[in-house]
Amino acid sequence: MEIMRIVVTGPVGAGKSTFIRTISEIEVVDTDRKATDETADLKAQTTVAMDFGRLQFGPNVALHLYGTPGQERFDFMWDILIRKAHAFILLVGSHRPQDFRAARRILAFMRYRTKIPMLIALSHSDIPNSWAEEDIAIALGYPSPHNRPPIVRVNALDQSSVASTIVALIETYAQEQAKQLNSIGGKL
Amino acid sequence: MAINAAKLQASLQQFVANASNVQGASIVSPDGLALATSLPGGMDEERVAAMSAAMLSLGERIGRELSRGKIDRILVEGDHGYGILTSCTDDAVLLVLADQGAKLGIINLEIKNVMPELQRQLGGTAQPLSI
């Protein structure tokens, strides 16, 4: 049995815990605590260490899903979780442009440590006044459409939507693997 | 009752100064915000508070899922000393950092002695470590 570790990260209130709860086959290990900072305006509970969920993907692969806390003061958890990850999802709420900067900082944090495949998932895109995909890509530092990670829309409450996001991530992962194999093959 | 932050801070500093082998202490909220701190130089109170909260919530989770019951204390023992997390009130946890020369029994007693005063100032009552 192969284990693939996927990290779900993103700013506060993007829907990371919900995302994992929606898809996990086991009861999610959460570490929610009552929020007492500005997060409390957004939601009552916030993740302080991690969320953990599991999903069987085909007969031989198990996915382990790790959700990070959103607040920057927990960046040591980002570091711990990303170290052993195979791929990660940056979950961004498209209706909260004030969080794009935080999302960009998380992205920089992860990119500084690892080059693993990733994709950007946009949640809350059904809310009026939410930003368009193209604009968010630019806000996250990807002005060129040719050189950016895959971007998908996701409804973190909807199982099939979350599942297709994970499939998209695994496809990205497989493509990266194939690319690496090819480049090794080219050198031989 | 309102919390007197300056007084709380002073009590914590006094505890760190008086208790032998204690290098620092911090009172943090369960979601990782510092309420009062007296830490050795070079330690960032924001990070310390967040780490304490993360440790505590995982510890509490272990208590529940691995049938250890309510958690009274979490102890991190390294070759340079101890980090001890003890429940203070429903909304606060005390972290104490002690050096490697510390006697654990004495530190535990010191924590037990300072606790009522901290609890009184935080306006809470003694609770087992559940948040």
Overall tally of structural domains of chain A: 1
> What class, by secondary structure content of chain A?
alpha/beta
- Main sheet record of chain B: 5 strands, antiparallel
Briefly note the CATH topology name of chain B.
Beta-Lactamase
Report the total helices of chain A.
Answer: 5
CATH class of chain A: Alpha Beta
User: β content of chain A, as a range?
Assistant: 15-25%
What does the model show?
The complex is a heterodimer of chains A (188) and B (131). Chain A is α/β, with parallel strands linked by helices and 188 residues long. In chain A, 36% of the residues lie in helices and 23% in strands. Chain A has 5 helices and 8 strands. In chain A, the strands form 2 sheets. In chain A, strands 4-5-1-6-7-8 form a 6-stranded mixed beta sheet, sandwiched between helices. Chain A has a two-stranded antiparallel sheet with strand order 2-3. In chain A, helix 2 packs across helix 3. The mean pLDDT of chain A is 93. Chain B is of the alpha+beta class. Chain B has a single domain (5-122), classed as Beta-Lactamase, CATH 3.30.450.30. Chain B is 41% helix and 27% strand. Chain B has 3 helices and 5 strands; from the N terminus they run αββαβββα. Chain B has a 5-stranded antiparallel beta sheet with strand order 2-1-5-4-3, with helices on both faces. In chain B, strand 3 (73-78) and strand 4 form a beta hairpin. In chain B, helix 1 (5-18) packs antiparallel against helix 3. The model of chain B has no long low-confidence stretch (mean pLDDT 90). Classes of the chains: A alpha/beta (188), B alpha+beta (131). The interface between A and B is medium-sized, with 19 and 19 residues.
Short descriptors:
heterodimer; A: 188 residues; alpha/beta; Rossmann fold; six-stranded mixed sheet; two-stranded antiparallel ribbon; 5 helices; 36% helix; B: 131 residues; alpha+beta; Beta-Lactamase; five-stranded antiparallel sheet; 3 helices; 27% strand; globular
Summarize the helices and strands and which ones pair or pack.
The complex is a heterodimer of chains A (188) and B (131).
Chain A: E1 2-9, H1 16-23, E2 32-34, E3 45-47, E4 51-57, E5 61-67, H2 75-83, E6 87-93, H3 100-113, E7 118-123, H4 133-139, E8 151-153, H5 159-187
Parallel strand pairs in A: 1-5, 1-6, 6-7, 7-8
Antiparallel strand pairs in A: 2-3, 4-5
Helix pairs in contact in A: 2-3
Chain B: H1 5-18, E1 22-28, E2 34-38, H2 45-65, E3 73-78, E4 81-89, E5 92-99, H3 104-122
Antiparallel strand pairs in B: 1-2, 1-5, 3-4, 4-5
